[in-house]
Specification:
- The chain has 271 residues and is an alpha/beta fold.
- The protein is built from 9 helices and 14 strands.
- The chain has a 5-stranded parallel beta sheet with strand order 4-1-12-13-14, sandwiched between helices. Strands 8-9-11-10 form a 4-stranded antiparallel beta sheet.
- Helix 1 runs parallel beside helix 9.
- The chain is globular, with a radius of gyration of 18 Å.
Length: 271
Amino acid sequence: MPVLVASDLDRTLIYSPAALALTMPDARAPRLLCVEVHESRPLSFMTETAAGLLTDLGDAAVFVPTTTRTRKQYQRINLPGPTPKYAICANGGHLLVDGVSDLDWHARVTTRLADECAPLDEVREHLLATADPEWVRKHRVAEDLFAYLVVERELLSEEWVKELAVWAENRGWTVSLQGRKIYAVPKPLTKSAAMREVARRTGAELTLAAGDSLLDADLLLAADRGWRPGHGELAEADWAAPAVTGLPERGVLAGERILREFLKAGRTAMP
Protein backbone atom coordinates (compact mmCIF):
# COMPACT_ATOMS: atom_id res chain seq x y z
CA MET A 1 0.00 0.00 0.00
CA PRO A 2 1.35 3.48 -0.81
CA VAL A 3 2.53 6.00 1.75
CA LEU A 4 0.82 9.38 1.41
CA VAL A 5 2.76 12.54 2.34
CA ALA A 6 0.65 15.70 2.63
CA SER A 7 2.84 18.71 3.36
CA ASP A 8 2.22 22.40 3.70
CA LEU A 9 4.49 24.45 1.44
CA ASP A 10 5.17 28.02 2.59
CA ARG A 11 7.42 28.15 5.67
CA THR A 12 7.33 24.35 5.81
CA LEU A 13 9.04 23.11 2.62
CA ILE A 14 9.63 26.39 0.73
CA TYR A 15 10.74 29.75 2.08
CA SER A 16 10.69 33.39 1.06
CA PRO A 17 13.96 35.36 1.52
CA ALA A 18 12.56 36.87 4.74
CA ALA A 19 11.77 33.43 6.18
CA LEU A 20 15.04 31.61 5.37
CA ALA A 21 16.54 32.19 8.85
CA LEU A 22 20.13 31.82 7.68
CA THR A 23 21.82 32.41 11.03
CA MET A 24 25.13 30.75 10.21
CA PRO A 25 28.18 32.62 8.82
CA ASP A 26 27.70 33.49 5.14
CA ALA A 27 30.45 31.12 4.02
CA ARG A 28 28.61 28.20 5.66
CA ALA A 29 25.14 29.01 4.33
CA PRO A 30 23.52 26.19 2.33
CA ARG A 31 23.20 26.45 -1.44
CA LEU A 32 19.64 27.42 -2.36
CA LEU A 33 17.39 26.48 -5.26
CA CYS A 34 14.73 28.94 -6.41
CA VAL A 35 11.39 27.12 -6.80
CA GLU A 36 9.10 30.09 -7.47
CA VAL A 37 9.34 33.24 -9.59
CA HIS A 38 6.70 35.97 -9.43
CA GLU A 39 6.68 39.08 -11.60
CA SER A 40 10.15 38.14 -12.86
CA ARG A 41 11.60 37.99 -9.33
CA PRO A 42 12.72 34.93 -7.33
CA LEU A 43 10.23 34.43 -4.51
CA SER A 44 10.61 31.02 -2.83
CA PHE A 45 13.54 28.74 -2.10
CA MET A 46 14.59 25.43 -0.65
CA THR A 47 18.10 24.10 -0.09
CA GLU A 48 19.66 22.05 -2.87
CA THR A 49 19.85 19.17 -0.40
CA ALA A 50 16.10 19.49 0.27
CA ALA A 51 15.46 19.46 -3.48
CA GLY A 52 17.24 16.11 -3.76
CA LEU A 53 15.30 14.73 -0.80
CA LEU A 54 11.99 15.86 -2.32
CA THR A 55 12.90 14.12 -5.58
CA ASP A 56 13.56 10.91 -3.65
CA LEU A 57 10.28 11.33 -1.77
CA GLY A 58 8.32 11.77 -5.00
CA ASP A 59 9.68 8.43 -6.19
CA ALA A 60 8.94 6.64 -2.90
CA ALA A 61 5.53 7.98 -1.84
CA VAL A 62 2.39 9.76 -3.00
CA PHE A 63 3.52 13.34 -2.36
CA VAL A 64 0.62 15.81 -2.10
CA PRO A 65 1.47 19.53 -1.87
CA THR A 66 -1.09 20.91 0.59
CA THR A 67 -1.48 24.68 0.70
CA THR A 68 -3.72 27.61 1.56
CA ARG A 69 -2.57 29.21 -1.71
CA THR A 70 -5.03 29.66 -4.55
CA ARG A 71 -4.63 27.45 -7.59
CA LYS A 72 -2.98 30.30 -9.50
CA GLN A 73 -0.51 30.95 -6.69
CA TYR A 74 0.29 27.25 -6.36
CA GLN A 75 0.90 26.84 -10.08
CA ARG A 76 3.73 29.40 -9.92
CA ILE A 77 5.75 26.90 -7.86
CA ASN A 78 8.13 24.59 -9.71
CA LEU A 79 9.04 21.85 -7.25
CA PRO A 80 11.83 19.38 -8.04
CA GLY A 81 11.03 15.73 -8.56
CA PRO A 82 8.09 14.00 -10.23
CA THR A 83 5.02 16.17 -10.87
CA PRO A 84 2.50 15.36 -8.11
CA LYS A 85 -0.70 13.74 -9.38
CA TYR A 86 -2.67 15.33 -6.52
CA ALA A 87 -2.42 18.76 -4.92
CA ILE A 88 -4.60 20.42 -2.30
CA CYS A 89 -5.16 24.17 -2.77
CA ALA A 90 -7.23 26.90 -1.09
CA ASN A 91 -6.96 25.12 2.27
CA GLY A 92 -8.84 22.10 0.91
CA GLY A 93 -11.33 23.98 -1.26
CA HIS A 94 -9.77 22.63 -4.44
CA LEU A 95 -8.39 19.15 -4.99
CA LEU A 96 -6.26 19.14 -8.13
CA VAL A 97 -5.94 15.91 -10.09
CA ASP A 98 -3.25 16.13 -12.78
CA GLY A 99 -3.44 19.92 -12.42
CA VAL A 100 -7.24 20.19 -12.84
CA SER A 101 -9.70 20.93 -10.03
CA ASP A 102 -12.04 18.05 -9.17
CA LEU A 103 -15.45 19.68 -9.63
CA ASP A 104 -17.34 17.13 -7.54
CA TRP A 105 -15.02 17.69 -4.59
CA HIS A 106 -15.31 21.48 -4.88
CA ALA A 107 -19.12 21.24 -4.99
CA ARG A 108 -19.16 19.13 -1.83
CA VAL A 109 -16.99 21.67 -0.04
CA THR A 110 -19.02 24.72 -1.07
CA THR A 111 -22.29 23.03 -0.08
CA ARG A 112 -20.95 22.33 3.40
CA LEU A 113 -19.71 25.90 3.82
CA ALA A 114 -23.09 27.30 2.84
CA ASP A 115 -24.78 25.04 5.39
CA GLU A 116 -22.45 25.61 8.34
CA CYS A 117 -20.82 29.05 8.17
CA ALA A 118 -21.62 32.74 7.94
CA PRO A 119 -21.27 33.90 4.32
CA LEU A 120 -17.98 35.16 2.95
CA ASP A 121 -19.47 38.59 2.18
CA GLU A 122 -20.28 39.15 5.86
CA VAL A 123 -16.72 38.32 6.89
CA ARG A 124 -15.18 40.44 4.16
CA GLU A 125 -17.35 43.43 5.09
CA HIS A 126 -16.30 43.06 8.72
CA LEU A 127 -12.63 43.05 7.74
CA LEU A 128 -13.08 46.14 5.57
CA ALA A 129 -14.96 47.95 8.34
CA THR A 130 -12.68 47.16 11.28
CA ALA A 131 -9.11 46.82 9.93
CA ASP A 132 -7.02 50.00 10.28
CA PRO A 133 -5.79 51.38 6.93
CA GLU A 134 -2.62 52.39 8.76
CA TRP A 135 -1.43 48.79 8.81
CA VAL A 136 -3.48 47.12 6.05
CA ARG A 137 -1.76 46.95 2.67
CA LYS A 138 -4.12 44.66 0.73
CA HIS A 139 -7.57 43.08 1.07
CA ARG A 140 -7.95 39.80 -0.82
CA VAL A 141 -10.60 37.13 -1.43
CA ALA A 142 -9.23 33.71 -2.39
CA GLU A 143 -11.18 31.46 -4.76
CA ASP A 144 -14.49 32.85 -3.38
CA LEU A 145 -13.83 30.67 -0.33
CA PHE A 146 -11.99 32.77 2.26
CA ALA A 147 -10.48 36.21 2.84
CA TYR A 148 -7.12 37.52 3.95
CA LEU A 149 -5.31 40.78 4.62
CA VAL A 150 -1.70 41.68 3.87
CA VAL A 151 -0.49 43.85 6.74
CA GLU A 152 2.50 45.72 8.14
CA ARG A 153 3.21 43.28 10.96
CA GLU A 154 5.06 45.75 13.19
CA LEU A 155 2.06 48.13 13.16
CA LEU A 156 -0.60 45.45 13.55
CA SER A 157 -2.84 45.63 16.62
CA GLU A 158 -2.67 42.31 18.49
CA GLU A 159 -5.86 43.25 20.31
CA TRP A 160 -7.66 43.60 16.97
CA VAL A 161 -6.50 40.10 15.94
CA LYS A 162 -7.85 38.63 19.21
CA GLU A 163 -11.18 40.43 18.79
CA LEU A 164 -11.42 39.23 15.18
CA ALA A 165 -10.79 35.65 16.27
CA VAL A 166 -13.68 35.80 18.78
CA TRP A 167 -16.00 37.43 16.23
CA ALA A 168 -15.11 34.80 13.61
CA GLU A 169 -15.46 31.88 16.04
CA ASN A 170 -19.08 32.77 16.65
CA ARG A 171 -19.76 32.60 12.89
CA GLY A 172 -18.08 29.30 12.12
CA TRP A 173 -14.79 30.83 10.94
CA THR A 174 -11.21 30.70 12.20
CA VAL A 175 -8.40 33.27 12.11
CA SER A 176 -4.71 32.60 11.44
CA LEU A 177 -1.80 35.06 11.41
CA GLN A 178 1.06 33.92 9.15
CA GLY A 179 3.88 36.34 8.50
CA ARG A 180 2.32 39.42 6.92
CA LYS A 181 -1.03 37.74 6.22
CA ILE A 182 -4.14 37.42 8.38
CA TYR A 183 -6.46 34.69 7.15
CA ALA A 184 -10.17 34.34 7.89
CA VAL A 185 -11.17 30.81 6.87
CA PRO A 186 -14.42 28.83 7.32
CA LYS A 187 -13.89 26.08 9.89
CA PRO A 188 -15.11 23.24 7.63
CA LEU A 189 -12.62 24.32 4.92
CA THR A 190 -9.78 22.02 5.94
CA LYS A 191 -6.69 20.45 4.50
CA SER A 192 -7.41 17.27 6.48
CA ALA A 193 -10.68 16.51 4.66
CA ALA A 194 -8.95 16.76 1.30
CA MET A 195 -6.04 14.62 2.54
CA ARG A 196 -8.49 11.90 3.63
CA GLU A 197 -10.07 11.98 0.18
CA VAL A 198 -6.69 11.47 -1.50
CA ALA A 199 -5.89 8.67 0.94
CA ARG A 200 -9.19 7.01 0.02
CA ARG A 201 -8.48 7.28 -3.71
CA THR A 202 -4.92 6.00 -3.48
CA GLY A 203 -5.49 3.32 -0.86
CA ALA A 204 -2.75 4.80 1.32
CA GLU A 205 -2.18 2.85 4.52
CA LEU A 206 0.14 5.38 6.14
CA THR A 207 -0.35 9.17 6.07
CA LEU A 208 2.42 11.64 6.97
CA ALA A 209 2.05 15.42 7.24
CA ALA A 210 3.90 18.62 8.12
CA GLY A 211 2.93 22.24 8.68
CA ASP A 212 3.75 25.33 10.69
CA SER A 213 0.50 27.29 11.12
CA LEU A 214 -2.84 27.08 12.88
CA LEU A 215 -4.41 26.16 9.54
CA ASP A 216 -2.18 23.05 9.49
CA ALA A 217 -3.24 21.75 12.90
CA ASP A 218 -6.16 19.70 11.55
CA LEU A 219 -3.88 18.18 8.90
CA LEU A 220 -1.31 17.15 11.51
CA LEU A 221 -3.97 15.66 13.75
CA ALA A 222 -5.52 13.69 10.89
CA ALA A 223 -2.24 12.11 9.76
CA ASP A 224 -0.73 9.00 11.29
CA ARG A 225 2.44 10.98 11.97
CA GLY A 226 3.22 14.66 11.71
CA TRP A 227 6.02 17.19 12.12
CA ARG A 228 6.11 20.92 12.76
CA PRO A 229 9.16 23.19 12.41
CA GLY A 230 10.63 25.26 15.23
CA HIS A 231 9.04 28.44 13.86
CA GLY A 232 5.49 29.52 13.05
CA GLU A 233 2.17 29.80 14.86
CA LEU A 234 2.19 26.24 16.20
CA ALA A 235 5.72 26.48 17.59
CA GLU A 236 5.03 29.88 19.15
CA ALA A 237 1.97 28.42 20.90
CA ASP A 238 3.99 25.33 21.93
CA TRP A 239 1.25 23.30 20.22
CA ALA A 240 1.65 19.56 20.61
CA ALA A 241 -0.17 16.31 19.88
CA PRO A 242 0.76 12.68 20.59
CA ALA A 243 1.66 11.77 16.98
CA VAL A 244 3.23 15.14 16.09
CA THR A 245 6.94 15.86 16.56
CA GLY A 246 8.10 19.42 17.14
CA LEU A 247 11.46 19.95 15.46
CA PRO A 248 14.13 22.38 16.73
CA GLU A 249 15.19 23.57 13.26
CA ARG A 250 13.92 26.94 12.06
CA GLY A 251 13.77 28.43 8.57
CA VAL A 252 14.88 26.70 5.41
CA LEU A 253 16.87 24.05 7.29
CA ALA A 254 13.61 22.92 8.91
CA GLY A 255 12.30 22.08 5.45
CA GLU A 256 15.32 19.87 4.88
CA ARG A 257 14.80 18.10 8.22
CA ILE A 258 11.08 17.53 7.53
CA LEU A 259 11.86 15.84 4.21
CA ARG A 260 14.40 13.58 5.93
CA GLU A 261 11.74 12.60 8.46
CA PHE A 262 9.21 11.85 5.71
CA LEU A 263 11.69 9.59 3.91
CA LYS A 264 12.74 7.79 7.08
CA ALA A 265 9.15 7.17 8.19
CA GLY A 266 8.11 6.03 4.73
CA ARG A 267 11.02 3.63 4.37
CA THR A 268 10.41 2.18 7.83
CA ALA A 269 6.82 1.43 6.86
CA MET A 270 7.74 -0.37 3.66
CA PRO A 271 7.87 -4.19 3.80
